[in-house]
Amino acid sequence: MDIQLKRGVLEICVLSAMRKDDAYGYKIIKDLSPFMEVSESTLYPILKRLEQSGCVTEYSVEHNGRLRKYYRITEAGHDRINEFLNDWDSVMRAYHFIKGDAENDKD
Amino acid sequence: MTKIEYLKKLKLALRQVKNEERKKSLAYFSEVIDDRMEDGIPEETAVSELESIEAAAERIIAEAMTQDQIKPKRSVWEIVLIVLGFPLWFPLLLTVALVVLIMYIVVWILVGSLFITSISLVIGGVAAILVMFFAGGLAPAFACLGVGLVCAGLGVALFVPAMFFARAYAPATPEMWNKLKNRKEGIIHE
């Protein structure tokens, strides 16, 4: 997949992973694994970017004698997901157009 | 590779990243490894399944670059100043280190003298009690016994605060040592 596209999609996936409940790094990776392969080191910059753009907030919770960082999706984060879904409709229209064209070429 | 080794190497690979961001990223990786281990993955596997240190560092650095989190390089002038200033900053540093060391020793000496005082009071007291048998007379004998008991009692009583101070101060030694070592090696324990 195109790197830019993949990055954009990954960000939305990560946001969606915390839509139900606040999540921590390892949980996000595990939850996404059936759908998308995300490594720990890929996730870190994504979380950082999402935090900086105000899509998530973070807080630490003590867990087994250490700190675990939880991420919570914000209003802006929800907007971001909706925006993506809306955009995707137009992407899909373009997709069908492209695919249709390609199939016409075959004929 | 153990978790600590991985974090140490990652820290080294991230030396150009500003401290705050570097700490954050190390804390993240530390947490992820801990979580993997908690999930039942053995430490070695949990670490080896991570991306290589080089790849992880590259991602962190690439992201840090876009956010102005890279340490400014030391200019030639700064390096020249550091080198030329060596005769000035080195003795100062040495002095500070020695003062700290001496303060540390002085406290131990104070604690030690409490012990010595306590022990000598007890010995002196016992000696005074023994001397009463050679005092030659009832009054001097009782005087010796009295003085001996008071001394021995004081000595025993003094042993309690001496032990207290020693116990309180002893753990400070490994603590201070760890702090020094961690500052040098800079592994985070959060």
The low-confidence parts of chain B are: none
What's the overall geometry of chain A?
A: elongated
- Choose one word for the global shape of chain B: elongated
CATH superfamily of chain A, please? Winged helix-like DNA-binding domain superfamily/Winged helix DNA-binding domain
At the third CATH level, what is the topology name of chain A?
Arc Repressor Mutant, subunit A
Tell me, rounded to a whole number, the average pLDDT of chain B: 88
- Annotation, overall tally of beta strands of chain B: 0
Determine the number of helices of chain A (DSSP H or I, runs of at least 4 residues).
4
Largest interface: A-B, 20 and 22 residues
- Profile the largest sheet of chain A: 3 strands, antiparallel
Measured on Cα atoms, how large is the radius of gyration of chain B? 30 Å
Q: Can you give the mean pLDDT of chain A?
A: 87
Determine the oligomeric state from the structure.
Answer: heterodimer
Biggest sheet of chain A, strands in spatial order? 1-3-2
> What is the total domain count of chain A?
1
Radius of gyration over C-alpha positions of chain A, nearest whole angstrom: 17 Å
Order of helices and strands of chain A: HEHHEEH
- Tell me the name of the CATH class of chain A: Mainly Alpha
Tell me the helix content of chain A: 55-70%
Q: What is the end-to-end distance of chain A? A: 27 Å
